[in-house]
Every structure is written in C-alpha cells, then in structure tokens.
Amino acid sequence: MARGTTTAKTTAKTKTKTPTKPGAQRRGRNTGSAAVTLTVIVIVVLALTALPLCLLVIGGMLPTAVAVVVDRHQRRYLARTVGAMNLAGVMPGALHMWEAGITFDSLQQVINSPYNWLVMYGAAAVGWVLYFCVPPVVAMVIEVRVDETKHRLEAQAKALVEEWGEEVTGRKRDG
Amino acid sequence: MADQQVETGTAGKPPVRLGERFEIHPDRPLPDLRSPNAAGFVAVDRDRPTASMFGLVCDADQPPRHDVLAALHGLRSEALLAPHEWGVVDWPATGRRHFAIIFDRPTGGRVVQSLTQTVAPMHEDELIHHVLPPLIVSLRDLFAAGFTHRAIRPNNLFWRDAAHRTLALGDCVSAPPAVLQPVVCETIESGMAMPAGRGNGTPSEDLYSLGVTIIFLLFGRNLVASLSDDQILAEKIGRGSYYALLRGERLNGAIIEVLRGLLTDDPRERWNVQDVEMWLEGRRLSPKQPALVKRAARPFEFAGHPFYTARALGYAFSRDTASAVRTLKAPDFEIWMQRSLCDEDRLKMFSAAVAEGHDVGAGGHDERLVARVCIALDPAAPVRYKGFSAAIDGFGTALVAAFRGRGSVQQIAEAMGGRLPQFWFSAQSGLKPELVPFLKSFERLRLHLEDRRPGFGIERIVYEMNPKLHCLSPSIEAEYVIEAGDVLTALERVSEKRKDDDFQVDRHLAAFIATRYRGAGTDWFDSLHHQDPAQRVLGALYLLARLQSFKGPSAVPALAHRLGRQLPLVIDRYHSRTRRKRLKAELPKIVGKGNLADMLAFVDNAADRVRDIQGFQQALRDYAVIDRELDLLHLEAPRRPERAAELGARYAATTASLLAWIIALSVIVTMS
C-alpha cells in the first residue's frame, strides 16, 4: 500500500507541533524556580537549626546539584531521577547522625566512612544509570508494539482485499 | 435455387412424416410439379393409400401464405389446388427444417412449363364453356372468403383430368403473393413493384392475371415473349394493357368483351367476378373502351425522352433518381405540370410532396422527395424509393426478401422512417377500407423502427408485418420456428450440436419473441443491449427463463450448458470472493438440471445481492479505518524517538522515586 502521499502531511504536522506552548514553558520555569527557592529555604532553615546535617546534605547531594545544572529538560527528569536516588543514598548517613546526635563529631564519623560516600554517590550513580538506560528500552518496546500494530492492520487490510477485491481499497484497478 | 437443394441428395432417404396422416417421399421427386420456390415429391395419405397426392417442400427464404392455406383447405374448390395438410418437416437432404404442403395431384399435369413454351391454341368455345366457368366459381369463393390468389399465370395451370378438358389454378400458397408472377401477368401497378413487394392485392388484380392467361390460352403462346419486363411495362403504360398484350394480333368473337373488361388498366373500370359470371351466363355487357389517360399538351423531356403522362414520368423518375432530383429542383417541371398536364389533383399532390420534405431530416432528403413526387404523379403505383418498390400491402414480404438477401433492409427502413407509406395514403383519392388497418399499423411500426433496443427496430417490424414468418435468427433459422413456444425447443436442438459455443440473444430472436409472445414486457429486452457483457448474459437468461416458465419445456440442459459457460461473468458481479467461489462450485449442478429459472435464481438472488452489497459497504468502511490507522502510524514515525525518550525519562524518574522510597523506608525500618 503506498503511503508516500502522506509525507507532505507528515512534515506539516511535525512543523505545527514543534513549537512548545508558551504557557507550558512559563509553568515549567515557575516550577523550577519554586523548587530552587524551596531548596534554598530548606537549606537555610537546616543550616540555622542543624548545621552538621546541613553540611552532610550539601556534600552528599553534590551529584544532584550537577544534575540540576546539566538538565535542560523542562520537566527536569534527570534531576528528579538522580535527586531521588541521591536523597535515598544520603538517608543512612543522615539517620546515623540523627541517632548519634546532630553534632560535628557525628558528622565527622559519617564523612570519615568511605562506605557512606559510596552509598551516597553510588545511589546517585544508579540514578544516572536509570536515566540513561530506561529511555532506549522504552523506545524499543514502543517500536515492537508499533510493528505489531502495523502487521495486524496490514493483515486485516489484506484479508479484506482477498475477500472483496481491489475495489474495497477505493482505488480503481489498473488495466 | 433453394428448391434444387431440397431435391438433391434425396435418393434412398426414408419418407418424411407430416402430421399423423401424410408421408412425403424424398426419393421420389416430381419435376413436373415443382415450382420455382418449392420442390415437388410424391406424397402418400396413410388413410387413403390409393389417393394421388404430392407434397411441396418450400424454400425457407419465401414464407408461405398461412392465412390462404387455411382458407383454401376450407373452400375445397373444384378449380383450385387445395392443400390437405401443411406443417414443418425435417428434410434430410438439406439437414434443416422446411415448410411442406400436401396437395391433390392433378392428373393431367401442367398446361405449360414456362411462358416461352408454345402449345396448341385453345378454342374460344372450349374456353368459355369448359375452362372459364369452374375457374370463375372457384375465384368467386376465394374472393368471398376475403383472399386473393395472386398466382394466376399460364405456367401455374393444371389439367385436372387426363382428357385435358378442365383446368385448375395451381399453388398460390407456397410463396408470398405474386412473387413468382411474371410482369406480363401483373397489372401496371403491381408490375412496377419488386416481385417480393407486390402484396396480396385485390381480386381485381387476379382477374387481370386471368385475362392475360386467357390470351395465352387463345393463342397458345406468349405474344410479348420477345419483350423484356421493362419494355412490357412501358408498352402497357404507353398503349394500355389490352393493346400492349395483343401486340396487333386480332381477336374475333365474344371473347373480346371479357378481355377488354379484364385488362382495363383502371381498377375501377375493370370487370369484377360478378361481371364475368354474368357474361358467362350469356348476358352481354357493352365492351369497355380503354379509359383515356390524361395526356399533356406538350411533352416533358426527361433523360432524353418525351413524356406525356404523369404515370410514365413517375415511372421514369423512379428509375433515375439522380436525374429526377435535378429536374425537380429546376422550375421547368412545375411549369409543365401547371400549363401542359393541367391535372389539378396531380398538381396539388406535387405541391404537398415538395412541402412535406421541409420537415424531414437531412439524410436521403432528395431520394424521399423523388419518392413523394412519384406518388404524387401516380398514386396507384407502389411506393418507390432508391430502387426499392413495393405495394402498400407488400412491405412485409419485401422486408422478408430483403432480410433473406434479396433487397436492401436499409432502404425499406428509410422509406418507412421517412413516412412514405403515410404520404402514399394521403395521395389516395378514396381509401379502400381494406387498407385502413395498414395505415394505422404503419404509424405504430414507425415507433418500433425508431426504438433501437433489441426486440424492436426493423427486425420487430418484419415479424409484426408477417405474423407467420419463421424466426430468422441465425441461431435457429434452420429450425423453422413459427411460434414463440417452440423457440426453446429449437434452441435446445441447436445447442445439442453446438454445446461449446457461447449463446447470445440476437436482434432477430429478441424481436421474434417480443412479437410472438404478447405477454413479453418491454423491460424483458432492456438488458440485452447493455454495455456490460455480464448484464447481457443475465438479460438473455432472464428472457429465456421467463419464456420457459410460460411456454416450457421444463428442462433444456444443452441450452443451459451453453448459458452456464457464460454465467461466471454474472457471478463475478458479486463482490464477495467467497460467495463467488461457492456459486461457481455449485453452478454445474444447477446447470445440469436444465431449468433456466433455477439458474437465474441461483446466480441473481435478490437477497444474496443485498447481503453482498451490504457486506461490501461494511468492508469499504473497515478498510478506510485501517487505512487511516496505518497512515497515522506512518505519520507518527519521525516523532516516535522523541516521544520514546520523553516517556523513558519519565519512567526513569518514576522508577527512581519508587526506589528511593523503598530504600528510605528500608533504612528507617532497619535502623529503628
């Protein structure tokens, strides 16, 4: 079945959909700035109330900061992925300090342990890995499903042509 | 001649049955009794084996006079060759069917074999006292029954007895009226018509022929044998029949009266049968003087010859149409008519002839003008157009002859389409009552002529004008089918020999069924000229199935086989391939039964047809949906990686969030 005639339509549709809506852009930018503001407030409050813990968090969440800086996506999927995993990695050290008392001694105990750094940064690395590995897998799954749909539809079309002849296509037979 | 084919190859052939009583012996021909259109054979009456009989096997090209056959059979006149039985027989020599008629065999034989033959002159007394009375009585009976003989000529006279004292008129039924008559035996009007177009005529024409025959018998020879037909006609027109036929020979005695009475050229003045009877009874009438024909004061020059009478000029015009057109377009002719001919009636008709041409189409305009002027000049003459020439009641038989290769069908169609017969009627000063039905039928037939569908046209007209003409369709012509009810039987017989030929309803077959089967609706023939071959096949099946259901026979397997070979075309009109396959698989079984109505219902079932159309429309919609979906997939293909990346990132974020929660909860649970 010839589909070449649809190329023009394709181009047109692509062109019309390419520009992002201004409202969505504004909403994304607002969300980003609100998150930054919230983060700053949390850090300031944390610094005022529990400075050692604040320092642990700042040091442990450095990969997330990097992700936030390099993530150009509107919805900041990279920052969200790395941030979530990074936060989970910081959690054991923060809980240790919580149990030992939020002091510089407990901070020193935590930061002196390479295991804690491995957990914090390793978790962040897992976030990075997730971010880079999941999209190709999803793309592959989508392609497989599209191929299946296409084959199913073509088989149905072929069956219709076999039963009702070329006339069913609405195109006149040549010759 | 076709009758010679009938005679050849008959040696050793078994007798052919005609009805329950009669047998014709193909191996015993009777050359003395054959006529130009029919071969004679010994016939035997199974109920009266000693009776002397003979059978005429007719030429298929010349339709017999069925109506006169029945009349003669009923009359049983002494001096007429009466038919005992007639019908269609299978003739072994030609391998086809012929019409055959059984007659009593005249014991004395034929008076003369041809008009060039010379015999002993008959004495006037013998003629008046022995020969004429029975002939006149027989003719009177025939005329009283409403029929004419139209075959009275010396070589169609038979001696009824071995002593050669009494005569009988020979066969007048085996061929169309007057078709075998020589010009010498015909009136001027009838002589101007082509042999096949002379028509039934009137008793007056028979009596004229009797007059010519009497001259032959009195002199024992044809006095104008040395003249050609054209010369005879010119002499008759120029000098009058009586003087033209006697050629200066002198006649004495009372016979002059009857001859002058019978050979008068004006039909109104000509003796009728009562006049002859009275004369035979001894009542002498005053001898007729030839009526004076209106002659012009000065001649009109046409084609290098001078003409004084309208009739002679009309005859000359009809024989040279191109010159006549030039003459009629010049003013001289009208001036001659006004100043020299001085015939008001002719002049009025001439004006009408010229005026009527203005409303007729362009093709053949000049020829039609000449034809109308010929009618105007000589209203009693036949309709003459482009070499075609027929009496008003001879169009039907002329058309048959044309269809059988003796004449042009196109010319007759043009003459009828150009309303020449109607103009002929308008030119008659007193329309004879017997011609009124013809006037009506010409109007009706012109409508058929203009209809181009099968079942109509000129083919329809030939059957309308010849109610007992056999079907001339090439497919069954040899089967000599006269009734619509016999069509399928004939087609079955033919199909048994030609099983592998495709079958088509040709224009003759359609017209024959339309004419002979009055129950046939005009819609029966609509599909026969459809552009789609499948529709044509369906139309043929539809027509024959209806004919079968009304007239039988119940099974025609050979014909069904021929039609069945073409039915896949009809089946292919269904959209569904599954249905097509199923129908094609089951078709041979249905065809084998030979019932055409069943075949029709099988291949063209209305409910199936509706289901098929509904199914096809649903399929069209389904296909359109599929097409749209495939288009959509195609359209989305360029954006698919981008969407996959977006979706993948979202899944990664969601997965990370879930993992983070799980890890956090696990850590809390572990440490607490």
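qc> The two ends of chain A are 18 Å apart (CA to CA).
qc> done
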